[in-house]
Amino acid sequence: MVEKAVTDSVARLLSEHLAASRQFIESGDYPRINVQANRIMTDASLSEEDPVLALTGLVLRLAWFETSTSLSPKPPKFALEFPQNKALVALIDALVSIVESDSRPRPKAPCWNAYEQFHRSFWQASRPKVEGRSYTSNKIFVDSAFRWASSRLGEWKGLLGQVRGAPIEGILGELNRIVRGQGADARQLACLGAIHCLSWRREIVNWKLSGADGLPNSEGVMKALQPDLEKVAGLYEIEDDGRFYSELTEVTSRLIRNWRLDFIAYYDLFLAEQRMGVPVHLEAMTSGRREAKKGRRVDQGRDDKGAPNEG
Predict the structure, then answer these.
(1) Chain segment 55-68, per-residue pLDDT in tens
(2) Which residues pair with 77 in a beta bridge?
């Protein structure tokens, strides 16, 4: 009963986060969508009983990444053309319906069905301006690209934690380019979302496992990431929809929870590094906090200002 009460209270808060996101759209403050998405993922991690809740924040953050490609400056805010704006509002409305649903457990596919609809509508309107007018849907090529990406994730795992090599980010760059030009279905976009989660987790694991020389402990990074990386790499080959969405939800919600917990645990140092532009390492935790107090104060409200790696 206690867990159910917690889950219901979390769902209520997430609904309010989504309502605030819609208000920011109306006011032209689009970067705040990213902040709201991060808040949703953090708050949803309180309810491990219902991992679907965290997916609503993930989908909203992915939608922000797409939105950011098409924003036009309109000081002091931003502007988005009507079709793209309409697609974004429709997505938020769909996420509210999922969060407020009485179904228990919440079904795992609707988040991705809603995101597929958003992605299709958004890029139908954005593609001519951002990617060019010549690109059209190419399902066979997109399928091949995701099979290639899944294979390479497994083959290149040895590069994790190395000084040179960013296979997850490289794969993301290629897949994002492809799906914006050629389209993607709900399962493909869900796999893309899982790889994004892996990338965010890798970034902070690399950082927290770096030594005083700034180099990551490659063995430690591999140990931390390998189980989830192998799980993500195997998702695309799962044919049964029920099993696919179940395993995808399990691994993405775990990646999100661990990423947000790490971010909270090392919040001051991580933001200090972002602000100062110099490495700040866990071995120097005490001195790092002292430096922050000496006129390089870490702004605890940073997450409200839409920083690239904010909370």
Answers:
(1) 999 999 999 999 99
(2) 74
Calculate the alpha carbon distances from 289 to 68, 263, 279, 284 in Å: 33, 16, 13, 9
Helix (H, G, I), strand (E, B) or coil at 281: coil
* Structure tokens given for 113: 């069905």
φ, ψ at 301 (rounded to 5°): -95, 10
| Distance of alpha carbon 82 from the chain centroid | 25
Task: Find the mean pLDDT for residues 197-210.
Answer: 87
**Six token digits for residue 256:** 């999100």
Q: What is the pLDDT of residues 158-171, one digit of tens each?
A: 777 676 778 899 99
Say whether pLDDT at 16 is over 90.
yes
- Torsion 125-126-129-133 (CA) sign: negative
Residue 310 has pLDDT above 70, yes or no: no
pLDDT digits (tens, 9 = 90+) for 111-169: 999 999 999 999 988 888 777 778 888 999 999 999 999 999 988 877 776 767 788 99
Residue 105 preceded by cis peptide, ω within 30: yes
